[in-house]
Amino acid sequence: MGACAWVAAPAPSSCREMLLHACRNAGSTPRIAHECADLRSGLWLVATGQAVSILPKLLCDAPPPGVAVRELPGPGRTLDALVRAGTETQSAVAATLAALTALTAAGAQGAPAPPDEAATPAPPAGRGAPTAASGR
Predict the structure, then answer these.
(1) For the chain, is the Cβ count within 10 Å smaller at the N or the C terminus?
(2) What is the pTM of this model?
(3) What is the pLDDT of residues 106-130, one digit of tens each?
């Protein structure tokens, strides 16, 4: 895919760094032909066959027609929730941490997790693998 035109966020951007890192790890250097601050809009360049991209999974939930989304192998992203010490057992905070933990676990497995009212909240750390988007 090194010869393909790529769409990326303008520098400096964590999304751009993720794309560059993933390509380097695959032994390729992307030819960034398009920069788009709104990466959802950049998906239209992918849909029309003008570019390919690597985006966070959150941006690929409703791709435009003509975009194939493929999950890439690898550990993905780590998320941390920070709360004031001692508040993690308060009902609202505990419920939020439990929901975040369930969502990140579901994202790592690719399916929604059922709510678990009895779950003991753990410090949420999850993986949401980056995805690759390619056009027609």
Answers:
(1) C
(2) 0.59
(3) 665 554 444 443 433 333 333 344 4
